[in-house]
Amino acid sequence: MIQEIKEHILNVEKAAISTAEDAEQLRIKYLGKKGILPQLFKSFKSVPVEEKKSFGQALNELKQMVESKTIKNKAVKGTNSAQEQLDLTRPGVTNNSGNIHPLSSVKEEIVDIFKRIGFSVSEGPELEDDWHNFSALNFPEEHPARDMQDTFFVEKDPDWALRTHTSSVQVRVMENEKPPIRTISPGRVFRNEAISARAHCIFHQIEGLYIDEGVSFADMKQTILYFAQEFFGKDAKIRLRPSYFPFTEPSAEVDVYWGLENEVDYRITKGTGWLEIMGCGMVDPEVLRSSNIDPEKYSGFAFGMGIERIAMNRYQIPDLRYFFENDIRFLRQFA
Ligand code: DAH
After folding, report:
1. How far does residue 244's CA lie from ligand 1's centre (Å)?
2. What is the pLDDT of residue 189?
3. Which candidate, 302, 119, 299, places its Cα nearest to that of 213?
4. Rounded distance from Cα 91 to ligand 1 centre (Å)
C-alpha cells in the first residue's frame, strides 16, 4: 500500500503541467470526489495499526504534492474553477459611507478663511442667559427682539433662553480675554418663527469679533472684502448699506455682487444683482464697557452671518428646510 502511494508521489512530481487544463486534470484525478486520494483515505481503516503512522504520513505527502502542483498553476494561469472563486469583474461590496453635511462644509470653509488671518475659534452655550444674549449687547429692556414671538424662553425662568444669535459668544469672549481679540464663533441659533422656505426656528451663524487699539471701520471693510473674495472668488465686490444693531455703531449690512444674468440671479437677488450676506459694525462703546474693556483705549468691529443663506446661494438650494430634513437623496448630492 505504502509502495503504491510512493509511486503516486513520484508520478505527481514528474507530471508535466503546462496549461491550466493540465492542472485541472491532475486535480480531478487525485482530489476529485472519486479520485485517488479519497479512495486511499477510505482504505486507511483497513491498514494494520503498526503501519497507520507511516501510511498517514505518505498520504499527507501525496495530498500536499497534488495541491501545491495544482494550486501554483491555478494562481499563475487561472483555471475555470479558480475564476469561479475569484471573479474580478464582479461588482465590489459597496460601503455606504456618509458625507459631510453642506452646512458643515460651508462653515469649515468660512472658518478656514478667517483662521488664515489670525482669527481663533470660540464657542458658547446654546442655552443662554439674558445678560449674554441681550443686556450686555445693549438691547434695551423693551426691545422687540426680546419678545416672546422671537425668542424661545425657558419656561418659568425668563432669564434663560435659547440664544437668538451667536453675538452672545462675543460677550463671553470679551469677559474672558483681554484685547487684542480676534475670534470667530460658529454655532446654532434659535428663533421662534414660522417655518418656511426662507425661515426656520433653527439655523446657524458665524460671528466675528476684532478688538484692539486703533481698529477702524476701514479695517472692517477690508477684512470683509478679503472674506468675500476668498469665498466667492477674486473678483467679488461688496457694498455696505447703513443699518442698525443695538450692539454696533455705526452698523451696516454687507452685500456681495452676485450678478444679474438669468432668472435665478433675479430671484436670489430680488432683482438687484446684490446679495445680503451679513450684518456688521463698530462695537458700541457701551458693549465694550459692559465687558470691562476701556472704550477710550480700544475699539473693534463685529460681524455676523447666516450659514444657511450662504450655503443656499452657493449650491442654489431653493428651500431652507432641505438642510434639516436629512433626506439622504439631498445629502448625497454633496458627497
Ligand atoms: N446678531 C445679528 C443677527 O443675528 C447679526 C450681527 C449683526 C452680528 C451685526 C454682529 C454685528 O456681530 O456686528 O441678526
Report:
1. 10
2. 97
3. 299
4. 52
Q: Per-block average pLDDT, block size 10, for the chain (335 residues)?
A: 87 84 88 88 87 88 87 56 72 85 96 97 96 94 78 88 96 96 97 88 97 97 96 93 96 91 82 92 97 96 95 87 93 92
Q: Is the CB of 187 under 6 A from ligand 1?
A: no
Q: Which of 114, 133, 151, 165 to mutate to test the pocket of ligand 1 (most atoms within 8 A of CB)?
A: 165
In the three-class reduction of DSSP (H, G, I as helix; E, B as strand; rest coil), residue 85 is classed as helix
* 210 CB near ligand 1 (under 6 Å): no
Predicted local confidence at residue 289, as pLDDT = 96
Instruction: Provide the pLDDT for residue 111.
Output: 98
Nearest alpha-carbon partner for 315 in 253, 251, 255, 268: 268
What is the fold, at CATH topology level, of the domain defined by 102-334?
BirA Bifunctional Protein; domain 2 (3.30.930)
Q: Which long-range contacts (CB under 8 A, 24 or more apart) does 288-291 make?
A: 288/174, 288/211, 290/135, 290/136, 290/138, 290/171, 291/136, 291/171, 291/174, 291/175
Nearest to 254 by CA among 283, 225, 230: 225
Q: Is the CB of 179 under 6 A from ligand 1?
A: no
pLDDT for 122: 97
Domains of the chain by residue range: 2-85, 102-334
Q: Is the peptide bond before 180 cis (omega within 30 degrees of 0)?
A: yes
Give 312-315's long-range contacts (Cβ < 8 A, gap of 24+). 313/258, 313/268, 313/275, 314/106, 315/102
Residue with cell 463671553: 172
What letter does residue 146 receive in the DSSP assignment?
G
